[in-house]
Amino acid sequence: MIRRLLDRLPEKLLALLAAGLVWHQLQASEPIAERTLTRPLQVLGVRQGQSVSGVPQTVELRLRGPARLIEGNNLSTVNAYIDLSGVGEGAFVRNVQVGLPAGVRLVAAEPGRVEGRLEAVVSQRLPVEIHSPGRWLRFEPTDVQVVGPRGLVDRAAKALGVDMGGDQVRLFPVDTRGEPLEGLALNPDQVRVVQRETIQAQKTVPLVLAEPPVSLRVLEARIPGSVTLVGPVAALEGLTQVRAIPEWRTGAYTSPLGLQLPPGVRATAPLQGNFRVAAK
């Protein structure tokens, strides 16, 4: 067996050397190209119940290799990632790793190193606050659950919404200054409006008796001197007095008083007066 291997050994070595020279020449003569790719940055090694923040979404890669490998769709398997296996909660720094096909070389990655935070995902209850200028709302629920990284959840102060007049109001988590906090989820993320009323002002104005029919003569009338009203601010601003209209008839009687009021305005309590009326 050994004799057969050594038989014509010089010729075999020369053939092997010639093949190597040909392969080297082919490699040397093959054109080399460069290409820049953008790849999403994958984060590996994150356990359930953990959240990563602060890392970029993508990485720019500059690659070099034979043109036949660099061009076309040959780089579809290229990927960029960081591995957080074994990393504890808190800040971390990791080099970007790149998976490449054989024959392709990484020239540069931007960024080549990333910083971020690994935090536990926690939850807590937040009170709901709805901004509804000029209106009073009753809504359900009055508090919601916020879920997210511990650092963000600790900053959340309330779930804020703005009433646009619909049946539902969308909520957003905000901090103590009212600044929105991204990266948090609310459950539910909206509330249902149960009741909506215009906020009303209160005003007390003089009460004056309306004129009786021409066929009647008022002998005596005793009515309250004023009436307290509630209603929209704009409706009350120009109101200086209110006319009271009783049930007109002859005789001595007590009658409820009807009031001539603008739309949306009402008295805080029913009124009545005592009358003695005769025919003319």
First-residue to last-residue Cα separation: 151 Å
Largest sheet properties: 9 strands, mixed
What's the helix-strand series?
Answer: HHEEEHEEEEEEEHEEEEEEEHEEEEE
Strand content: over 45%
Give the % helix.
10-25%
In short:
This protein has 280 residues and is mostly beta strands.
Can you characterise this structure?
- This protein is mainly beta and about 280 residues long.
- The protein has 5 helices and 22 strands.
- It has helices at about 1-5, 10-30, 65-70, 150-155, 235; strands spanning about 30-45, 50-55, 60-65, 80-85, 90-95, 95-100, 105-110, 115-130, 135-140, 145-150, 160, 170-175, 185, 190-200, 200-210, 215-220, 225-230, 240-245, 250-255, 260, 265, 270-280.
- The strands form 4 sheets. Strands 2, 5, 8, 9, 10, 11, 12, 13 and 14 form a 9-stranded mixed beta sheet that branches. It has a 5-stranded mixed beta sheet with strand order 6-4-1-3-7. Strands 20-18-15-17-21 form a 5-stranded mixed beta sheet.
- A hairpin with a 5-residue loop joins strand 11 (about 160) and strand 12 (about 170-175).
- The radius of gyration is 42 Å and the shape is rod-shaped.
- It starts with a helix and ends with a strand.
Give the topology, please:
Elements (H helix, E strand, L loop, with lengths): L1 H5 L2 H21 L2 E13 L5 E4 L4 E9 H4 L8 E5 L6 E6 L1 E3 L5 E6 L2 E19 L3 E6 L2 E7 H6 L2 E5 L5 E7 L10 E3 L2 E9 L2 E9 L6 E7 L3 E6 L1 H5 L4 E4 L5 E6 L1 E2 L6 E2 L4 E8 L1
Parallel strand pairs: 1-4, 8-11, 15-18
Antiparallel strand pairs: 1-3, 2-8, 3-7, 4-6, 5-8, 8-10, 9-14, 10-13, 11-12, 12-14, 15-17, 16-22, 17-21, 18-20, 19-22
